[in-house]
Write a structure and sequence with these properties.
By secondary structure, this protein is of the alpha+beta class. The chain contains 6 helices and 6 strands. α3 packs across α6. It starts with 8 loop residues before the first helix and ends with a helix.
């Protein structure tokens, strides 16, 4: 117990296991960390429901980003929730530009598994790295641009899942 907060080492280990598997590109091991009713959200894939859709997104991203490198730090967890900070380094396929994305992750746990995973990152900063100037710099903050990126991402996920 730290400052009256109950630390849960098993949940912290689960977070580390997830990112270790991600770094090894082991989608099956990542999937074992998620509850069947898991949900995921981030600035691009706003809300994905169910382990199949969540893992479809991760499998698609791993399949399209062959050079992805993942580093996690600041992992902490309690009985029902936890957080971590992670860095993703990869080449954005559409532009060939290098992206170094700093991400804050929040987790909820149920039955020893991740039931809710939410990633937060600076969308404008990401768009400048991924898309370059002038597109990312001038349009990365606009709601219309974000909707376009989200729509493309969701169409890609639907296509990926329908093929697989």
């Amino acid at each position: 117990m730290i400052w009256g907060i109950r630390v849960n080492d098993q949940n912290a280990a689960l977070i580390r296991t997830f990112y270790d598997a991600f770094g090894r590109r082991d989608a099956d091991a990542m999937e074992r960390c998620y509850h069947p009713d898991a949900t995921f959200g981030d600035p691009v894939f706003q809300e994905l429901e169910g382990r199949d859709r969540v893992m479809g997104m991760w499998r698609m991203l791993l399949g399209r980003n062959h050079d992805i490198a993942v580093a996690v730090r600041d992992v902490s967890a309690r009985d029902h929730d936890g957080e971590a900070h992670w860095t993703a380094r990869y080449t954005f396929g559409r532009t060939g530009r290098e992206v170094v994305n700093e991400i804050d992750a929040l987790f909820r746990f149920e039955g020893g598994l991740i039931i809710r995973h939410h990633d937060e990152f600076d969308f404008k900063h990401w768009s400048k790295m991924a898309l370059g100037r002038p597109v990312g710099l001038f349009f990365g903050w606009t709601p219309m641009f974000r909707a376009t990126i989200r729509g493309r991402a969701m169409r890609s996920l639907e296509e990926f899942m329908n093929v697989g």
